[in-house]
Amino acid sequence: xxxxxxxxxxxxxxxxxxxxxxxxxxxxxxxxxxxxxxxxxxxxxxxxxxxxxxxxxxxxxxxxxxxxxxxxxxxxxxxxxxxxxxxxxxxxxxxxxxxxxxxxxxxxxxxxxxxxxxxxxxxxxxxxxxxxxxx
Length: 135
Fold this sequence. Notes:
CATH class: Mainly Beta
Largest sheet: 7 strands, mixed
CATH architecture: Beta Complex
Number of domains: 1
Shape: globular
Structural class: mainly beta
Radius of gyration: 15 Å
Number of helices: 1
Number of strands: 10
């Protein structure tokens, strides 16, 4: 599936291809800190399909618990997280942040959750939390 996306302020825009059934949720403490929330939802770009169409992300190099490094791209103007990828030149795939993708409502529900040992207990089941259409 071809997708488009970008940041909140419009400075960064991109396109890529993804398999819409491969959304996953990460509960690691790094994702909690980097998003400022309880978890991060991602989808991987298909190899060689991610292309920046506008703007240049700022890149933060994160070192994981394993010692592996990940390059995290975000908008330098509004701070919207865009992707993570390997730090090598010309990486083949990007972990795209679901919130920035225009077609996100067309994706299947997540099929996998990772780093659940770090999950906030309440984040694993929100079915009973009261819901409203607007604030």
